[in-house]
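Researcher: Let's do a round of design. I'm pasting the structure tokens now; please hold your answer until I've finished.
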């Protein structure tokens, strides 16, 4: 895997994750990473924000807002109160903005790694997986075929490109998608599970694709793999069962709990 800048902390996270995943089920391990994310983001925010000045501003903001709500005089007397309210509120925002952006950095690093570690998994040998290829420009896809695995064409759909239902290769074997001229396009299984394999883009300098990339001059622009998603919850609708719901719920809950416990402004 060619890593992007945001992927490098994931090497450390992977080392930490290996013994955890060997002992605990995936949902428990994901909960650990979500709560660690909340602790890191709140610790960074508390460490780099001016809590004393923000605490001093809070009663001033409340006082001016109370005065505004109870004001019953001339309009000319209202304007200084409005200006003072904007000044105090703007000062509070400026004090919080920089630390808040900085506090999001550790969450961003963990989030990039978590999306790969708890997103999709390799299918079992012989499992039927839908694979959809999108050609580059006007490349002719009519002669594209699979070697090394049974594959069935999927009937026409609204999605662009061409799709097949492919029998996932057994360990030690592989399947290759080739053009009518015998040019290799994609080999299954990829190096690491990922829902799409595409040509390298500029943003991959930040976030790499764990499955690798298609050749830059190749006939395919992207190939989508309908790999099985890891389920963190055994109940609820499909959108609740993936890693996203459990991670973000615990991240928000943990952050709010620490904000209350540490009395962060």
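Researcher: That's everything. Go ahead.
Model: Designed sequence:
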């Amino acid at each position: 895997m060619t890593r992007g800048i945001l992927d490098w902390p994931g090497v450390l996270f992977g080392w930490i994750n290996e013994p955890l995943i060997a002992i605990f089920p995936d949902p428990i391990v994901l909960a650990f990473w979500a709560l660690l994310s909340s602790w890191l983001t709140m610790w960074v925010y508390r460490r780099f924000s001016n809590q004393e000045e923000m605490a001093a501003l809070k009663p001033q903001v409340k006082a001016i807002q109370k005065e505004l709500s109870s004001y019953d005089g001339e309009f000319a007397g209202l304007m200084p109160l409005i200006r003072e309210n904007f000044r105090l509120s703007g000062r509070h925002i400026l004090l919080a903005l920089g630390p808040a952006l900085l506090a999001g950095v550790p969450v961003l690093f963990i989030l990039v790694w978590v999306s790969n570690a708890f997103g999709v998994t390799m299918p079992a040998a012989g499992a039927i997986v839908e694979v959809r290829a999108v050609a580059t420009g006007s490349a002719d896809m009519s002669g594209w075929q699979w070697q090394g695995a049974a594959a069935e064409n999927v009937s026409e759909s609204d999605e662009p490109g061409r799709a097949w239902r492919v029998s996932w290769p057994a360990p030690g074997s592989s399947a290759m998608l080739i053009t009518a001229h015998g040019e290799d396009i994609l080999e299954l299984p990829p190096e690491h599970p990922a829902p799409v394999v595409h040509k390298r883009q500029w943003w991959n300098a930040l976030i790499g694709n764990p499955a690798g990339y298609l050749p830059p001059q190749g006939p395919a622009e992207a190939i989508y793999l309908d790999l099985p998603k890891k389920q963190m919850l055994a109940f609820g609708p499909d959108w609740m069962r993936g890693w996203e719901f459990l991670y973000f719920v615990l991240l928000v809950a943990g952050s709010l709990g620490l904000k209350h416990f540490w009395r962060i402004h």
